[in-house]
Write a structure and sequence with these properties.
single chain; 301 residues; alpha/beta; seven-stranded mixed β-sheet; two-stranded antiparallel sheet
Length: 301
Amino acid sequence: MLRSANTQGLIFPSMRLLFRFLSLWPLRALHALGAVLGWLVWWLSPGYRANFRANVAQAGLPFPVARPAIADAGRFVAELPKLWMRPHDQSCLAQVQVSGQAHAEAAFAAGRGVIFFAPHCGSFELAPQALAELYGPITAMYRPARQTWLARLMHDSRHRPGLAVVPASLSGIRQMHKALKGNGAVALLTDQVPPEGLGVWAPFFGRPAYTMTLAARLALQNGAIMLPVSTRRLEKGRGYALHILPPLVGLNGSPPPDLLGAVTLINQSIEAMVLSQPDQYLWGYARYKSPRRESTIGGVA
């Protein structure tokens, strides 16, 4: 036990030093390294390949359309040191082309709070940071990693000015409700499988997928406006393009939809974003798996 604790104590500073070293690399170099990593994982993992191909087929896409996402999954991993280790007083917006801000401005003007939501597509790790600089404070939810060193690194890196990162717990949900009631904003990834009891089976590309209900509940209970957000990596390390799409229609009608109907509307919006960006979606994620049992609430990964 003592040896295990000592090992964990050594891993964190070592990995932090590695991340800091990689954060000094140009983004283009990190993305090139990531592309190699993405293909290496592809060839070494039959299970990953099977999930990837099955999910692409379920979406009704020919495989060549999604093939670039193999390399892009590696780019996602390789860019994390730069996103996580960026100094808190350094803006990320210099590398981000932002469009669709009129939708956000109109949503905030309505005075009911805003829910920014996205799939595991493009640089979804960058999106909360950029949105916090534009519209902060923003409250985002996450589940700590199982590895102690990674959980510490994520915690230290994600807490930034204007970005309140809360745990996936009842306390975190209460903070999200509070933010929306004050016409603030929250950010969620809505296409991951939540723990058992915290989702419903709703269609996703024509197949039932266990889908989180948190976003739908927040919108229905607070009257908040849901804004889809996509963040695309630009070629050759030129940065990112963050696009705020028109608000999700149908959640705030009279009468409002039931919970399953609301979740289905959100899934349909996610489908549209994925189909518009199939070369940067994490197709290898086991989206149709059965939920696990645990006491936390599904939120931002």
